[in-house]
């Protein structure tokens, strides 16, 4: 059976899987990302993860953190979550290590493609995918393909302005962006600033689930801001479906209900019925989406 390799390179972990043509993961391996040791160490870790798998593969697809230039196969820009990652010739370096054709893209685009292949968006062609976690990323899928834009930056949903973030700093260096109020770290920081004592976002979500007023209010405020941004995008891109993944999306009804209400309040009448649904595939999504790119490379 012919297989391809799907790889998800994140700031803390690398996951590789052997994937069939119908989207089944036959084997997987995970290794920590040696992020502080620089690009060579990270690329070697990808090759090491691939070597742990019990089979050969005909091509590899890679979803990576950073702004990825699909055409050149390089990392155009990146945060310091992986030291020196910007400028890495990702496709060429991995092709040399793996000995097969390699295709690369941003990890959130890969996540969206995985959900379109075998997950919650299967069968859809126009999808707005949002990953709400440590940051807020996304992918705007048009006719089955992620829209990457003129500078490979399309999908950075966290840097949309929202009223609740006015004057608040954003990790990008700007201010007023939804990531500054809707991301996981922003929610936890706001909860603590209002006098809460929980130390992790899952604890805040658990408290909200038991009726704790402070925890519920913080989640609702962040979800409302995120929903406003997503609702505006629904008006702009007219998707069949809004799909939301990431760690914050695990916060339960206290987050989902105000998120959906905020989207509904923003959208135009013609798109008011657009579903807003949770992603299904979790950590497998980016591996599957990367593998899907590899299958397309072979076609």
From TrEMBL:
This is ROK family protein. It comes from the Bacteria. It comes from Saccharopolyspora gregorii. The lineage of its organism: Bacteria, Bacillati, Actinomycetota, Actinomycetes, Pseudonocardiales. SUPFAM superfamilies: Actin-like ATPase domain. Pfam families: ROK. InterPro entries: ATPase_NBD (IPR043129), ROK (IPR000600). Belongs to the ROK (NagC/XylR) family. PANTHER family: N-ACETYLMANNOSAMINE KINASE (PTHR18964:SF169), ROK (REPRESSOR, ORF, KINASE) FAMILY (PTHR18964).
